Every structure is written in C-alpha cells, then in structure tokens.
Amino acid sequence: MTTEPLGGGRTAPRRPTMREVARLAGVSHQTVSRYFKADDTIHAELRQRISVAVAQLGYRPNLVARAMRNRRTGRLSFLLPPGTAASSLELLAGAQEEAHRAGYGTEVFTLDGPLETRAERALELADSGFYEGILALTPLPLDTRRAAGDTPIVIAPHYDQHMRSIGQLADAPDLDEIITRLAALGHRRFLHLGGDYRHTSARRRRDVYLETIDRLGLRSHAVIDCAWRAELAHRAILDLPADSGVTAVVAANDVVAVGAISAALARGWRVPEDLSVTGWDNNPVGAAMTPSLTTVSVDHEELGRRVSRELLATVREEPVPEENEGFTRVFWRSSTGPARSDTGGASLGRGR
C-alpha cells in the first residue's frame, strides 16, 4: 500500500490538467482527449481552440497514462481525508483484501484542502488513466455518472473531513437491541453517558438511546456528556444520587463504560448485581476485565470488503451486490444482568 498526500502544502507549481484545457477551450474533457488521439472527426474550429488553450496553459499530456487508457491497469485507488483512525486502517485492510482477491493492486491517497479542491484532485486521478476505479471514503461534490470509457468514481462516505465516522459507520441500531434486552431483564431506569458530540456517531448513539427509551415506555435519569473520557464517566457515577433508581448505564464507548464501572465499584456497588453497564467498540481489554464488558463489535474489515465489492461491480459494469447482513454485533458479557427487584436501583443503602 502506498499513501500519498494530494492538495495543500505543495511547493512545486502544479501541472495544468486536461480539464483546465477543456474549460479554457470551452469544450468537454472528452473532446480534449480525442484531440490528443488525433481524432479527425473533431471540427477544425474546435481543434484550433484546443490548440490555443494547450499553448496558453503549457499543457503536456501524460504519455504513460495515455498509453494505459485503452487497456486494463489492474489498479484501484482509495481516497481518504487526512488524519488517523484505527477503524479506517481496519476498513482499508478489508477493502484491499477484497480488491487483491479480485486481482487488483491498490493505492491509498489522502485528500486535504477545501471541498472543491479535493473533488478536483479526485477527478485528476480519474483522468490520469492509471486506475480502473476510484473509491472515495469521504464525501465529494461529484456527479459520479461519468461518460463511457471514463474511470468510475464510487463515493461511499464513511468519514468526514476530520476522519470522524459518518453514514452507516455512525449508525447505532444495536443500542435498541441492548436497551430492549435490558428492559426484558427488569431494568426500568437508565443513564446514558455520551461521547463527543462533534462526532456523528456520538449523536446517533444518544438519539437511538432516547428514541428506544421513549418507545419502550422506560425512564431516562439523564444524558451526561462525557466526550469519550473515562474520568468524566467516573465523576458522573460518583455524583449519581444514591436514590436515583438507575439500574443500567448505557455508555457511548468502552472507555466511558470502564470509567463508569470503576466508579460504581468505588461506591461499593456490584456490577452487574446493582448496576448493569454496556459499552461500544469491543475493545479487547473489555473481554479480559472483571466483570467482562457487554459491548458492540463493529466489523470494519467486513465494511471495507463491502465497499470494495461495490467498486469492483461498478468497474465491471455489473449490478452492485446487495448486502443484507449487518456488520455490527452485540457481545453480551458479565457486566449486564437482571435488575434487582427488591431495591430502588443502585442505591442499596451503599455508597453516598
């Protein structure tokens, strides 16, 4: 895998592109491409306008790319915003695995700069002729219905410009399953410890929590912002009134859940006998701790394989395969259990 930055921070002058020639000449970029292939069906006036535009811009066609245009290159390109996220590495691993299985090599590029600049860079890659297909994992303002013979661009936006999860990756249907099962175990009063609301995923987990509580006729003691931080979750549980009646804590991720459990134990509450706690992300530490943590596993590699299959189907001009199975799963472990029916929740006469 190679990773190269595109846009922003370039010190050398950028070479003019075929699209810039087309804009200056007032023709389509396909017409400019035909001009360089010596297509004699182009009207003389158009040839003259293109010739003038080429001279004014100092455009030089990429001869290697032009030689590749009419044959398979066996290469795909994946586009990401700048930044790092562990989930993106797993997603890329799955996408590349699927591409390699189909006989394709892959390259990964980061796109920075303004939205329009990123879109232009994506089009430059598509027009280079080096790639049979391009997959953008971040939103781009592009019409992907490109002309026949053009390199297809598939936009599967799973990360915003700051490498934060969006789209399917930020959805939280599993919280419905978690709360429904806890309700079946007798829990009636809940607490949500939220994430950083700059993240779509944190907002969606909060919203699904509230929607499910309302739908099932349960009670939410509060939604407390914890910004993915264990120490804020720890403080929230220490500050929880002893007579709150809360028997279940739904945390926005595993780090927040661990902070909640540590505070509950510090107050002399037993988990899960006095307080059930759930997380999200399936951090390996959660399975090894005592009590082991009920959580949601997100199969980022499977999601990567799916978006790669979508790109491959588009390149081959085949129907995009339907993906009916989810890529998340709840792991029920020992941090959750039945609610105590003989008490008012987590108070039990213990702690503060």
TrEMBL record:
<feature type="region of interest" description="Disordered">
    <location>
        <begin position="333"/>
        <end position="352"/>
    </location>
</feature>
<dbReference type="InterPro" id="IPR010982">
    <property type="entry name" value="Lambda_DNA-bd_dom_sf"/>
</dbReference>
<dbReference type="Pfam" id="PF00356">
    <property type="entry name" value="LacI"/>
</dbReference>
<keyword id="KW-0804">Transcription</keyword>
<feature type="domain" description="HTH lacI-type">
    <location>
        <begin position="16"/>
        <end position="70"/>
    </location>
</feature>
<protein>
    <submittedName>
        <fullName>LacI family DNA-binding transcriptional regulator</fullName>
    </submittedName>
</protein>
<keyword id="KW-0805">Transcription regulation</keyword>
<dbReference type="InterPro" id="IPR028082">
    <property type="entry name" value="Peripla_BP_I"/>
</dbReference>
<dbReference type="InterPro" id="IPR000843">
    <property type="entry name" value="HTH_LacI"/>
</dbReference>
<dbReference type="Pfam" id="PF13377">
    <property type="entry name" value="Peripla_BP_3"/>
</dbReference>
<dbReference type="InterPro" id="IPR046335">
    <property type="entry name" value="LacI/GalR-like_sensor"/>
</dbReference>
<keyword id="KW-0238">DNA-binding</keyword>
<dbReference type="GO" id="GO:0003677">
    <property type="term" value="F:DNA binding"/>
</dbReference>
